[in-house]
Amino acid sequence: MDLLKKIKIIKNGGVTTPSGFSANGIHCGLKRNGKEDLCLIFSETAATSAGVFTTNKVKAAPVTICQKQLKHNKIRAVIINSGNANACTGKNGLDDAWKMVKATAKVLNIEAKEVLVASTGRIGIKLPVEKVINGINKLKDVISKDGGHNSALAIMTTDLYPKEMALEFIIDKKKVRLGGICKGAGMIHPNMATMLCFLTCDINIEKKLLKKILEEAVNNSFNLITVDGDRSTNDTAVILANGMAGNGSIKEGSSDHEVLSGAVSFICRFFAKEIVRNGEGATKLVKINVVGSKTKVEAKKAAFAVANSSLVKTAIFGKDPNWGRVMSAVGTSGINIVEEKIDIYYGKNKIVAGGVGIEKVYPIVKKYLLGREIELTIDLNQGKEQVSVLTCDLTPEYVKINAGKS
Amino acid sequence: MDLLKKIKIIKNGGVTTPSGFSANGIHCGLKRNGKEDLCLIFSETAATSAGVFTTNKVKAAPVTICQKQLKHNKIRAVIINSGNANACTGKNGLDDAWKMVKATAKVLNIEAKEVLVASTGRIGIKLPVEKVINGINKLKDVISKDGGHNSALAIMTTDLYPKEMALEFIIDKKKVRLGGICKGAGMIHPNMATMLCFLTCDINIEKKLLKKILEEAVNNSFNLITVDGDRSTNDTAVILANGMAGNGSIKEGSSDHEVLSGAVSFICRFFAKEIVRNGEGATKLVKINVVGSKTKVEAKKAAFAVANSSLVKTAIFGKDPNWGRVMSAVGTSGINIVEEKIDIYYGKNKIVAGGVGIEKVYPIVKKYLLGREIELTIDLNQGKEQVSVLTCDLTPEYVKINAGKS
Q: Do A339 and B230 touch (CB under 8 A)?
């Protein structure tokens, strides 16, 4: 089945494109530059929901609350602030996150158990919760179908541009829509790293299947990217499905299931790629393919070892065909290799054959490295499994941003 | 026993300070800037020897040869080049490394099996071995007691200054001397990472005990430092003990054993600290202590997670008391933590108590972070084990050096 033929990208679509969803983003006083820092997403009807969260053992207060809310309840609203992570804030932080939930429920006239909450920004600073609550009071009057773009702006931190998308496809002969917003930037690593992603959908679906579809999509997208190897305390990917498209139930393994899975994966992969392209200070998007591996686990280990190597990433920034650093990173990944079997390609240019460099290719690869999108393929020549990981180059700008000096 | 009282640092001492050793370093044509790039260390008598090498599965040709030579033979000479790693160079690389060994044996009139070889520099470029062999012919005429400093210069790559030291102490009532040279800089990570260390000693000792002492010293020094988390293909730490001090045999567990262990550890720790201080682009030396751990293994995992976090390292460069990044790194280290139990200190200033920041301390910590040597202590409050790791900050200059742009 050619999934792409069944999925239509909706021009200027976003988180409010599916039926029954409204949203908006405003400035409530958290970001010093006066930009949007508070976002509210609302569904007219209670939505079946699922979420995937950070694996960091230090979890932000809102993550703890979402995990609790999602265990039992249908969801009608998500309140998200940027500019403060409300992480490592102890009992006060948890109280503040609950205050956000309750204030949102109150202004929308829904139950507190129907509200999810998320935060992103600096860790360890007390949330100025009064500002946020004032903001929630204002937001309730402005949420609308037109507020999708402002929502995307309001969840940004160091992102260079907002990330939003919506898709349309057919399920059970009904036209259904899937939309979403996402933010990323630094601290991106498998298992999600300060990224927030909120998906909305008007499909009718069982919670269990929805969760499975989201988890698969996250594993094939956000969990295959890295910017700096750090993982955040706040990572959240949530999907709300409010059933307003009126389709009948979706059976596991059916072609409807396949189309929906394809659509959720498509949007997650799109966001994942945009996150890496927007990696702090990044000048190049880099795809690392490890092929010819005995197992997927080994391929993934090797791919992340290369993708997280500061030396590989700085060499790519420097447009330097320094494949030795790639070999060295594979060698330290902990997997079994046979050095004499390894081939390496920069784009389609084979630069290493059987563990040894092909010098005449270097000038060609130097030119190839001038591009904005770089692909490295490491063939272990030991088996048939493969994994691809997205990363970006490491630049002086990354350091300046994270040292607070840019 | 106060070891430091038993060990004397010899002013201007180095690799030729112990009896019977001579050395020198010259330019043979590998470094484009005309600086010293070839070093020869020679012992008048055959030396009991031991070595510790990279754990990277991609090993440079000279590493393979040293491991073979050290299995059986006493050693009389070490030939080392900088400016080319002779790694990932296939069968040709191995041939070239053997040519270095044989040329050295020939000019010194010793056997090939008595020669060790090491290389450091860029990976994957064929070694211009004729230049090296011409250099070896010249070196044989200039090795002397006065050549220690030039030897230290000749093994440098991106180091800012040469690293050398010699100690004197008493074993079996004889005055013995231990000297050495070392190089480090980028790609430094536990299990040694492009660092080379050559120790010479005039002590008389059994090979087995010598190896044990070297391994312990390396574990407590070079294996507790990190610059960028990458590990090299060429790491080598070697000790030669030629017996010329005339002491009787050293018993395991004796006070003589303890003094020698202390001396070897002292010199290795000194070099390890200098390597980190010289980390590529580093402006600050950073000590990460993890205390209150249930096990040493967990403490080490947490310490390296913090020491290798790009976000922690850039924050320290930016003099930013961003302890949230420290918490987050500990949370992703894979060890079991109780967030509410964690205390964090910057120097002696407690900035986090029970997982929550103490805001009034931030201005004090900002001032503390202006210093050149920074110490972070993370108390897990779960047990009694502790580990300290040395690292440095991550700076725009690191990126420029490794992108070939500085």
A: no
pLDDT in tens, B261-299: 999 999 999 999 998 887 778 899 999 999 999 999 999
Helix (H) or strand (E) segment spanning residue A299: helix A296-307
> Same structural domain for residues A146 and A272?
yes
Same domain, A231 and A117: yes
Chain B contacts in chain A segment 120-149 (CB below 8 A): 122-126
**Nearest C-alpha of chain B: how many angstroms from A136?**
26
Asked whether A269 and A221 are in contact (CB, 8 A), the reply is yes
The CA distance from A262 to A171, in Å, is: 12
Q: What is the ipTM of this complex?
A: 0.78
The CATH number given to whatever domain includes residue B345 is 3.10.20.340
Best of A53, A56, A57 to mutate (most B CBs within 10 Å, chain B): A57
Cβ(A278)–Cβ(A159) below 8 Å: yes
- DSSP structure string for B214-255: HHHHHHTTGGGB-SSS---S--EEEEEE--TT---PPPTTSH
Examine the domain organization and report whether B160 and B51 are in the same domain. yes
The confidence score (pLDDT) of residue A193 equals 45
Side-chain-side CA neighbours of B152 within 13 Å: the count stands at 24
Backbone torsions φ then ψ of B74, nearest 5 degrees:
-80, 150
- Which entry of B194, B226, B377, B391 is annotated as an active-site residue? B194
Answer for the pair A318, A284: CB distance below 8 angstroms, yes or no. no
Kindly report the nearest CA distance between residue A308 and chain B, in angstroms.
Answer: 9
Instruction: Read off the pTM.
Output: 0.83
Domain stops at, among B258, B277, B296: B277
